[in-house]
Amino acid sequence: MGRLEGKVALVTGSGKGKGGVMGMGEAIIRRFAAEGAKVAVTDVNTEAAEALAKEIGDNAIAITLDVTNEAHWKPAMDKVLDSFGKLSCVVNNAGISEPANIAEETFAHWQKVQRINSDGVFLGCHYGVNTIKLSGEGGTIINISSTLGMKAASIHAAYCASKAAVRHLTKSVALYCGEQKLNIRSNSIHPGAIHTPMYESFLAMGPSREAAMQAFEAGHPLGRVGKPEEIASAALFLASDEASFITGAELTVDGGLAL
Ligand code: NAD
Fold this sequence. Notes:
The chain has 259 residues and is an alpha/beta fold.
């Protein structure tokens, strides 16, 4: 019996990764499916979503979902209900990280980051709570923030602000769902540097990939960066009934980076 048997989860930004490197969304989908959940693989990149859903098989569907486009959300929820009859869990994972300090940041780029990282999570919480509650069984919202949502960095002005917004929104959702007796828990995960396609893009920015990697590793007290599967393990715990009394929590999965 899997730890998510009988549950249905939608994960944003969960299309298949690039060049054999998995994103966190892909890792979460694979782990949830392996633990018995039915899964909706969603991404702005349709091809990537379809490729992963095909690999998972009958317990997966692919949905094109640009988290910033409100018109995509209701049809996505309807497709999950039509396919699997209910929704138990939304993982708001889609995000971008393009560094810029406050002096260099443009308003247009600031807005782009907030649209995906913050507005997209708002929409996922709004449509997620309203769809999960239809079953009367309760469920979970899991928002992927960052250690940069807890501890700021000068080169990530917009990103830090967007991830701090996610952290606090998560708690407001937890309080609302508690007050309404919906049995819907809402928690945030705060990853450190995790080896995904996003991390590969950070390594490509510096003059030397090796030096950049060593600097990332040295910044983490455990002496290495994380794996997407390690974020999937945390998400699995929060999505499962093992976390039944945990809501409004912020779970760092960061090798000690935020300490
Ligand atoms: P990634 O870039 O590897 O994957 C992000 C996924 O989101 C991609 O599949 C992409 O197609 C999708 N996406 C982008 N814009 C979208 C949109 N508008 N709508 C729907 N999907 C969209 O990133 P990752 O490293 O797997 O990061 C996942 C989450 O974790 C992000 O929210 C990121 O900010 C956060 N995070 C990452 C790290 C890290 O070191 N990798 C650290 C802390 C937090």
